[in-house]
Amino acid sequence: MSATGLDYQALFQHAPCGYLLTDDDGVITEVNETFLSWAGYTRAELLHTPLHALLPTGDQLLYTMHCLPQLTQTGVVAEIALEVIGQDGSRHAALLSANRVPASGTTPAMVRVGIFGAHQRLRYEKSLLDARRRAKESEARWAAAEAGLQHLALHDALTGLLNRAGLIQELGDTLSKEPSPDGRAVVLFVDLDHFKAVNDSLGHAAGDELLGAVAGRLRGAVSEPLRVSRLSGDEFVVVEMVSDTAEVGTVAGRLLESLRPPIMIEGLEVVVDASIGAAVFEDGDTPERLLRRADIAMYQAKASGRNTWELHDSSQSDPAVDRMQLLGELRHAITNGELRVYYQPRVNLKNGSLTGVEALVRWEHPTRGLLPPSDFIGLAEESGLIRELGAWVLDEAVAQAVRWAAEQPARGPVEMAVNLSTRQLADPELPRRVGAVLARHGFNPSLLTLEITETSLMVGPEAAMIALGALKALGVGLAVDDFGTGYSSLTYLRQFPIDELKIDRTFVSGLGINSGDSAIVASCVQLAHAVGIKAVAEGVETEGQREALIGLDCDLAQGYHYARPLPAADLASWFAMESPERTQSIPGAAAL
Asked: Staple 239 to which of 227, 392, 405, 584, CB 3.0 to 4.6 Å?
């Protein structure tokens, strides 16, 4: 190691505060000696451990549901107050700041986390005492120094607005006066839409200039400018007094209207949109709870299409808590055997014969019944559980194909299609894992097709090319799923080593009804054949769609016209099928 490298390592290990490095899932990859000494852990105890596992339950929710999404969106989290559980079980008050370094080439993304413990706070207090001693010779100088320190502690350096600490103090004072003759307090959580695009395209200096302009406009749109604050990044909070909930809409509309005119940044007109969540004070609300309720409403506004506002309904449960609970249940579902694989037949359109099946996961929830993938796959993808879940589905699907071949040797082996997620495709261990499954079950690789969505391929096309090449070397088939819904380049499509192009159901449903959809499906079939691969239609539900696809020379089809996804036991009757007309007698088939 070079002298420079040694110097950097020494600075990292003995920095005045705790430093940790994690991946995008929050798993610790490195930690310095300062943090180990402060928290009492050994390095071996922390490496490969989720950072949120060191936090109490409330702070786990804060970090996983607020900090991690904010890091993905803005790349920065600043001074989050929380507690860290030491090795002996004691709790240490701390401030957490983090910034995300995007992936570069073969280097994966990482998150740098700084944790400031009590000794850093003591150093701050010592500085304050020193400042006071130096100001003793002049009462005026002492007062000015204290006011300056107080201002720095409670205000945002960039915009001059109140920061989180200042907002909590101001909000606490306001709530202590409830009920007020001026009405009830309402907190409006303002989050700029697509602010990251400004930072990425124009740079952080331009982003800071934009934040300053937004702060000025929000000040001008409220009755008392001191009630505007900046929490962190592109998040602002406005506190107003309203006589009733109907007035909340007036206040929110005024804020949105103040941001509507374009802002000139480096000679360019930047249009600013915002999503606003509002929460009106109710008995029992603390400043933190009121902020949390407004934050929940803000995310509902984003889900409603952005550039709008939503009022929090206190009778509804906290979606972040619900998601955390569902995530915990999903972890147990994998180990407790609650997952099920259903299989949907794939049919040769030319002769009506069964060519294979696609494996589709379901969750047999102990209280909510059979859940479709739309209820939990997104959560699994966000949390990183998708790798474990996807590995289980692949192993179970291949094992089932082998069982079918053993039970009905006269029929021959069954081709199996299995979906891969974006995270699975990005896993460098994926080819090895797939190869191990094939070897463990003695399954012919040519009978396995791995399906990757068009969107997943375009997240990182160069990396996807490498991953697909390694999978193709195993001998498996590859398919582009949901084709037509992403933004893939035809150049990449020609270069990817794929065998099938699966046309998305949204276009297939318009066959014979919408001329545009019919033209898109025809183009997709022609494109697939032009590059020498099969065209597969998803979501075929009617005889008219089947006939139209035959007329377009599409190769394969699947959908409710043939059968719903079925448990393995119910699919046995498919193995006697000789033509699609016989699907009418098959359990779960057709005609919805």
From this structure: 227
Dist CA 426 CA 449 (whole Å): 18
- Contact by Cβ (8 Å): 355, 348: yes
Q: Counting Cβ atoms within 10 Å, is residue 322 exposed (0-12), middle (13-18) or buried (19+)?
A: exposed
Count of residues making up the chain: 592
Query: Of 464, 463, 506, which Cα lies nearest the Cα of 483?
Result: 506
Strand partners, 273: 193
Comparison of pLDDT for 491 and 279, the residue scoring more? 279
Q: How far apart are CA 513 and CA 342, in angstroms?
A: 30
The tokens for 357 are: 């099946």
Q: Quick one: DSSP state of residue 183?
A: B
In order of 508, 527, 536, the CA distances from 514 in angstroms are: 10, 20, 19
Beta carbons of 502 and 483 less than 8 angstroms apart: yes
Specify the DSSP element, H or E, that contains 191: strand 184-193
What's residue 341's pLDDT?
96
What is the DSSP-derived secondary structure letter of residue 65?
A: I
Q: How many CB atoms lie within 10 A of CB 483?
A: 25
Per-residue pLDDT, 360:
95
> What is residue 176's predicted lDDT score, i.e. its pLDDT?
81
d(CA 267, CA 231) in angstroms, rounded, equals 28
Here the tokens at position 94 are 């701390």
Amino acid letter for position 264: M
> What are the residue ranges of helices labelled H in 534-584?
543-551
> What burial class does residue 57 get, using C-beta atoms within 10 Å of its C-beta: 0-12 exposed, 13-18 middle, 19+ buried?
exposed
Nearest CA among 282, 270, 252 for reference residue 190: 252
Question: Out of 64-78, 92-106, 305-319, 420-434, which region has the weakest mean confidence (pLDDT)?
Answer: 305-319
Cα(79)–Cα(99) distance, integer angstroms: 11
Q: What is the amino acid identity at position 328?
A: G
d(CA 269, CA 264): 5
Q: How many CA atoms lie within 13 A of 179 on its CB side?
A: 4
Q: How far apart are CA 92 and CA 337, in angstroms?
A: 38
Q: What is the pLDDT of residues 526-563, one digit of tens each?
A: 999 988 999 999 999 999 999 999 999 999 999 999 99
268 pLDDT more than 90: no
Over the stretch 207-261, which tens digit does the pLDDT of each residue have? 889 999 999 999 988 877 658 999 888 999 999 888 888 889 999 999 999 999 9
Residue 372: CB atoms within 10 A of its CB come to: 13
Q: Is the CA virtual torsion 237, 238, 244, 246 positive or negative?
A: negative
Output the pTM of the full model. Answer: 0.54
Residue with the larger pLDDT of the pair 408 and 145: 408
Alpha-carbon distance 252 to 391, whole Å? 46
Q: What are phi and psi of 334, to 5 degrees?
A: -65, -45
Q: CA 459 to CA 186: how far, in whole Å?
A: 40
Which residue from 422, 549, 391, 539 is spatially nearest to 486, judged by alpha carbons?
422
CA angle (424 as vertex; 199, 405 as ends), nearest 5: 160
Residue for token digits 């490298």?
5
For 29, the 3-state DSSP assignment is: strand
